């Protein structure tokens, strides 16, 4: 072996000669990627992910810390009474009694097979349609008036919204003093004009009209303020462009304002329906016996705490009300919302 020259054995020289190939004819293959430790060596390589890392565990504990109190409160004060009420609806039970008899669905059968069901459901439908429709239509008209640059509009907004924040009991007492056929203010005005005062309280049909008027008056401000917020959030350039094109105010309202107000209308429709179906305080104060005003909510009270004292039957009516509210909400969310135009 000379200095600086590497001598190869004959076997090594033959191996080098056999591995020489023409690079222009043989493609160069890319090396296989290294397999992950512990991965699948037979086919496609899978990488195992760790879902419960220190960060995800910390986020889970933070979520529980904030959500658990609300979950406990909702479970105790909402779902537990709901389940208990469904159980009570299957009992023949008098309120305050220690004894109850399981009767299955007999309370529901009794309600739907009696003449009271048609009366109660019809009264509920009339009350709901007129209170919701009246509040929303009049609220929209008032919102259109308050959106104009008129003197004293700030005071008018406060005056319109004030009845909504008042107690329903107080509102009922004040209006009862107005509608009283003997000592009421309206009766005094009509007698001074030589007219007889209608029997608002004693006539079932007039009683329903009376509570509808009062309920619309109380909730009018809420609808007006919500509609006013929707009108003020509209893009002014669209209205100005339509005005320059020669569109009248009525045409702009029908073609532009109403479609843009559809999210507001949808929101008010849901909240107003739920509120109307659960109305109680004004009905109880103005018509204590429920004559002509026995909606589902009021009938539930009358059956349990009135002269009937049927707690199980009352629970069945409240379950019917719950199912009705659930169905109406689902229908609105599934079908009515499709026609809502979100800008």
Helix content: 55-70%
Q: List segments where confidence is low: pLDDT < 50 over at least 5 consecutive residues.
A: 1-30, 38-42
- Beta percentage is under 5%
Class by helix and strand content?
Answer: mainly alpha
Radius of gyration: 37 Å
CATH topology of the domain at 106-339: MetI-like fold
Q: What is the H-and-E element order? A: HHEEHHHHHHHHHHHH
How does CATH name the architecture of the domain at 106-339? Answer: Orthogonal Bundle
Q: Please tally the helical runs, counting DSSP H or I stretches of 4 or more residues.
A: 14
State the separation between the terminal residues, measured CA to CA: 89 Å
For the biggest sheet, the summary is: 2 strands, antiparallel
Strand order of the largest sheet: 1-2
Keywords: Cell membrane, Membrane, Transmembrane, Transmembrane helix, Transport
Region (Disordered): 20-47
Transmembrane segments: 60-79, 121-146, 158-178, 206-229, 260-280, 311-331
Protein name: SN-glycerol-3-phosphate transport system permease protein
Structure in a nutshell:
With 343 residues, the chain is mostly helical. It has helices at 10-19, 54-88, 106-113, 115-146, 153-165, 168-179, 185-192, 204-232, 236-244, 249-260, 262-277, 281-286, 296-305, 311-334, and strands at 91-93, 100-102.
